[in-house]
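As a point of orientation, let us examine one representative protein, giving the amino acid sequence and backbone structure tokens.
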Amino acid sequence: MRGFLPICGAKKNRLHPESIPRIILSLSLGVSPDFAMDWRKKEACARLMALGLLVFTVAGCAKTPRIPLGDDPPGDGLRRNSALEATLDRRLATSGNRVTLLPNGMRTFEAMFAAMREARDRIDLEYYIFEDVRVGAESLCELLTEKLRSGVAVNVILDGYGSSRTDPEFLARLRKAGARIVVFHPLTPEAILELTRVNDRDHRKILVVDGKVGFLGGVNLARVYENHSDPRAAERGDFRHAYWSDIAARIEGPA
């Protein structure tokens, strides 16, 4: 600190009032005192503005509201809350549902493909990453185009950033077959310049078949989940077959 004080305008270990903002700026942004003292210069101002903008973009959009903790409701709380929900928006808790946990990507894809093969009316997909994944010899593109030819509607919502590396030919084939595909917040030059919304992304991972069977969870339709995971692959530098662990759920019933 002694070496720090003279640089910031202090004499005999006493701080000048005008030096205090420079010290705060230096410590909070992690810049040198010399740089903080140059804040009046155009170059330094430009750097600080760019740094502040970066901090705002990264941290400003990641805030979540605080939820106060409390005790569990009394025994009749569930009935009271159910009645309140029914009065406000008619969303009732239902019984007769079946939930099956799917512990990894391959199990998830197998269950999803099986459900889509049985589709008779519509297939609705909403994914952050939407790629042409495979189960055995069958690809997602082949399965969906076959269902489209049989008269099943296919609707897709994909994220503009998460699916930015998706093969355009895959999407073109689906569109040509009749699929409706919507890109959420596409990466256009105008969208990129909207810095307050650049991280506004659709992280949903949802598949609904005929309005009766649904899938949700942490598994994207991404090819990294196709591989039979090898826990030691990363140690060998083989990141293509590294261990990916995500969970999904298959839901069936009135829910």
In short: Residues 1-5, 7-11 have pLDDT under 50 and may be disordered. The chain has nine helices and nine strands. Residues 42-60 form the longest helix (19 residues). The first strand starts at residue 98 and ends at 102.
